[in-house]
Amino acid sequence: MDTIVTSMLFATIVAGTPLIITALGELVTERSGVLNLGAEGIMAVGAIAAFAVAHDSHSTWAGVAAGMAAGAAMSLIFAVVTLTLMANQVASGLALSIFGVGLSAFIGKPYESGTMLAVPSVRIPVLADIPVIGPAVFDQQSLVYLSWALFAGVFWFLYRSRAGLVLRAVGESPTSAHSIGYPVIRIRYLATIFGGAMAGVGGAFLSVFYTPLWVEGMVAGRGWIALALVVFATWRPVRVLVGAYLFGGVMITQLFLQGSGAQIDIPSQFLSSLPYWATIIVLVIISRNVQTIRLNSPVSLGQPYRPD
Amino acid sequence: MFKLEARAEASRAMRYASPAIAVALMVVVGMLVFSALGKDPVEGFRVFFLNPVRDLNAITELLLKATPLMLIAVGLAVGFRANVWNIGAEGQFLMGAVAATGVALAFQSSESRLILPAMVVAGAIGGALWAALPALLKTKFNANEILTSLMLVYIAQLTVSWLVFGPWKDPAGFNFPQTEMFSDAALLPILIEGTRLNFAFVIALGVLVVGYVFMQRSFAGFKMRVAGESEAAARYAGFSAVGMIWVGLLAGGAAAGIAGMAEVAGPAGQLTDKLSIGYGFAAIIVAFVGRLNPIGIFFASLLMALLYIGGEQAQQYLSLPSSISKVFQGMLLFFLLGSDVFIQYRLRRTAKAT
């Protein structure tokens, strides 16, 4: 029994990690008032860039860096179109997703049968010896620990640093922020690029750490789920963390049910659709209270701003 | 240095020139991409952009591919105009195909002439029902329709997969994930002998006309346009936001469902797990490039169909992955959104470089 609990907990943390990284990045972007719906496409491009580089260079970290750079480059396109050219953010984000998914399939063709060794896990002494939880929590791959560091960093940045305060001010009221003298557009550029870089790392986690392989369409909606997570979290990092593991849990539960085989008579496709149903249900529950959403969402989210 | 300066009045000329600029930029960048990949750009241009229109047969294939795109895009445009963001047309397309397949399989041995109309209706209802869920969740629970309609795409794909691997699998199909081939009575009639172009093209033209009348000539269409341009104005005038969400989503869903029906009763002739090549997403681009206007959508769907077939040609003659068409499609939308800035703004030289 202990081993099942341990392995499910372990797998839940792994499944939640790409969501945490991507959603925290998107959270920072949205807090600055920019709605980037391109996460799915950015993750796809980040995943193939990371896989291609890690595969050819035999270096995991070169792969992660490539994923990050590719994600930043993708979001830079988005930033130019929406922040400099003031295009509609919803339409541009959709364009980025469609473009990214297509681009990843195009670049990824030669890598479809490529294989790589699994990235070894890093065991943290003493802590990993705690019964049941220890092996699940403290014997993970390095990027999992880094996702916690990212969480701490984003939390500190938003609530404890001056820069974070400025970022939030820009998201709440770009006009006031501008009149006090803050460079609204530059701050939004940085926040958007940070979000893209993190979505790129989220994709890199999928293709280099999680699987490790490249298949067209492997992101499978995780970018959209990360966007939904930000809403679910009402734009607060702590709830992103909780939500991501909740989703990881749903994904893993359905996989374990499928793996357990004969005892249950439910078609595998229905089990596979559970995370998507869960996303819908969670969105409904959280959005039902219009007041909560209105109080917590950045006021200028999705609206173009042009300093005069 | 240059600076963007607001125009006193939105430029009408730019509104129509912008798609042309976007296409020109896409072609130029496309040729650069071909060179970067070590292909002769002129040859690339010929294969990608000219091969799909080289003779009558090629043109009928183009119209065949454009059919689902124009159907879906005109339905989406109804919603997009009112800022109702249904981006789950891919799922609505699949569920329309599922509903139509249900009718076809139920009457496999019948030769009634009513089967096809019944399939069209079933397709429209299937697609509309799949879009009704995001509409319900949006109007009752304020849930973002972008995310819910998108999640339903994955669920629709899994549902199709379950059907063709499970209860609807053709027993004589060597275990392939597909249904039986439809009987002749459940297949759309061919328009031009010797080609694959079928009656769905006529249906699509009809839907374009209906869309035109609704969007440009009806009061309901006017209300939705107002809501899209100024939510506050629409609220002040007392236009029902809930009604618009329903109309926007149901129109998109029904049109996408008919497109799904046309695919199973047309070129596919059966339901398989590889029915769609991303028509539902490509149609979003068609709707924007067509300026959310049925006439524009007609031409934009031809262009997007050209990119699909160009991709297939590039795979065949240039040994490039066919997904290059999606790269071009995405690029096109970006260029369009970018050049649209010049509808409201113009470039002005600033006196001194800073």
Task: Throw out a few tags for this protein.
heterodimer, A: 308 residues, mainly alpha, two-stranded antiparallel sheet, B: 354 residues, 14 helices
- Report the β-strand fraction of chain A as a percent range: under 5%
CATH topology type of chain A: ABC transporter involved in vitamin B12 uptake, BtuC
Looking at how many chains there are and whether they match, the oligomeric state comes to heterodimer
Number of helices of chain B: 14
Name the structural class of chain A: mainly alpha
Radius of gyration of chain B, CA atoms, in whole angstroms:
22 Å
The CATH class of chain A turns out to be: Mainly Alpha
User: Could you say which overall geometry of chain B the principal axes of the C-alpha atoms support?
Assistant: globular
Mean pLDDT metric of chain B: 91
- Helix/strand order of chain B, N-terminal first: EHHHHHHHHHHHHHHE
Taking the alpha carbons of the first and last residues of chain B, their distance comes to: 7 Å
Residue share in β-strands of chain B: under 5%
| Helical coverage of chain B, percent range | 55-70%
Tell me the radius of gyration of chain A: 19 Å
Largest sheet report of chain A: 2 strands, antiparallel
Q: For the largest interface in this structure, which chains are involved and how many residues does each contribute? A: A-B, 46 and 44 residues
- Which structural category fits the helices and strands of chain B? mainly alpha
Q: What's the rounded overall pLDDT mean of chain A?
A: 92
CATH architecture of chain A: Orthogonal Bundle
* Number of domain units of chain A: 1
Overall 3D geometry of chain A? globular
Structure, described:
The complex is a heterodimer of chains A (308) and B (354). Helices cover 73% and strands 1% of the residues of chain A. Chain A has 308 residues and is mainly alpha-helical. Chain A has one domain (2-296): ABC transporter involved in vitamin B12 uptake, BtuC, CATH 1.10.3470. Chain A is globular. The mean pLDDT of chain A is 92. With 354 residues, chain B is an all-alpha fold. Chain B has a domain at 67-211 and 242-290. Chain B contains 14 helices and two strands, in the order E-H-H-H-H-H-H-H-H-H-H-H-H-H-H-E. Chain B has a two-stranded antiparallel ribbon. In chain B, helix 4 packs parallel to helix 6 (145-165) and helix 12 runs antiparallel to helix 13. The radius of gyration of chain B is 22 Å and the shape is globular. Chain B starts with a strand and ends in a 5-residue tail after the last strand. Classes of the chains: A mainly alpha (308), B mainly alpha (354). The interface between A and B is large, with 46 and 44 residues.
